[in-house]
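[09:14] KT: can someone run the structure on this one? pasting the chain below
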Amino acid sequence: MEEILGAVFVIALVAHLLLLGVAAWRVLRGENAVDRLLSVELVSVLALCVVLLTTLITGQSIYVDVALGLAALSFIGTLALAKYLADQRMF
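[09:31] RB: done, structure tokens below
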């Protein structure tokens, strides 16, 4: 049973990495600023999933702390970028 679960985790990790590449391409080639903002948010969520899948595969719990920090920074960064796009000034 553990081998099957490990294989599922690896397959999910590969799928998330492929989706991360597609989302990163969309950040670079987005049509407008809002499209790029949504793509940046998607990249951060997929990166969070990759870190958590790495935690599950390796069994080291330190990656959970890294994932929490990444989630917090992603949230703050998205808010700052959305405010900049809305007002055309930072603060």
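[09:33] KT: thanks! The longest helix spans residues 2-28.
[09:34] RB: yep, looked fine to me
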